[in-house]
Design a protein that fits this description.
Distance between the termini: 38 Å
Helix content: 25-40%
Structural class: alpha+beta
Shape: globular
Order of helices and strands: HEEHEHHHHEEEEEHE
Number of helices: 7
Strand content: 15-25%
Strand order of the largest sheet: 5-4-6-7-8-1-9
Number of strands: 9
Length: 227
């Protein structure tokens, strides 16, 4: 991969990609609620058929980050990000962690049959949206890779929109280097990085829930002071 996820939690995204991409969009992984499936405890392996059924079900089985915030009574989606960070690898400093919010998140989502996104990978519904995004941008093929750019390979973009498998997307880059998409191994959102020219063809907010990074946005968004 010619690009990489920003080094250091305190590194602003826009500064890291300065001269390569502008803007950077923080895209949330949707949660899932598939009829006929009852998610087990968070962290347990997700059956492959669940993810395939989610793709076949499409957007109607998606649960947005805003929906999760409302369910938990959180003031904003920033609190959902903070609560998620104490799941899985638990990569969050103790002084920033909020065990009570994490417990509420896990309990209510289990009660409502909602499967929260796994860290470090795209959810099936984000893959569907990414397939549509790439099609609109005119990228029929992209280079994908595992974490830290390992094992890059060229794939047909349509594979992300297929409903027979989940690609488990981590990183991708367009062949013309106008688009780079990445997620850190411990986090629950992708960074969608575009050139100004690419942005004129398709805007990520039309395909994904999220927000544009400002000059200060880094991996501490929604983790420190939430006032």
């Amino acid at each position: 991969m010619p690009f990489a996820y920003p080094e250091g939690d305190e590194t602003p995204y826009l500064r890291w990609f300065d001269g390569q991409f502008q803007p950077v969009f923080v895209a949330f992984n949707p949660s899932l609620r598939v009829p006929g499936f009852a998610p087990s405890d968070f962290g347990e392996p997700v059956p492959e058929e669940y993810e395939i059924d989610a793709k076949r079900c499409g957007a109607k089985c998606g649960v947005s980050r805003s929906d999760i915030a409302k369910l938990c009574g959180f003031p904003s989606i920033r609190y959902v990000n903070k609560a998620l960070r104490l799941t899985g690898s638990r990569r969050i400093a103790p002084e920033y962690a909020d065990p009570e919010s994490t417990s509420k998140l896990l309990s209510l989502c289990k009660e409502k049959g909602i499967l929260l996104p796994d860290e470090g990978y795209a959810s099936p519904l984000l893959e569907l949206s990414m397939g549509r995004f790439l099609s609109t941008l005119g990228h029929s093929k992209v280079v994908t890779a595992s974490h830290f750019g390992v094992d890059p390979c060229l794939i047909q973009s349509g594979a992300l929109s297929g409903d027979s498998e989940n690609v488990a997307l981590v990183e991708l880059c367009s062949e013309d280097f106008s688009l780079y998409v990445t997620i850190y191994i411990d986090y629950h959102y992708h960074l969608i990085c575009q050139t100004d020219a690419g942005l004129k063809s398709a805007r990520p907010e039309d395909f994904f829930e999220g927000f544009y990074a400002d000059a200060d946005t880094n991996d501490f968004w929604g983790i420190g002071d939430l006032s």
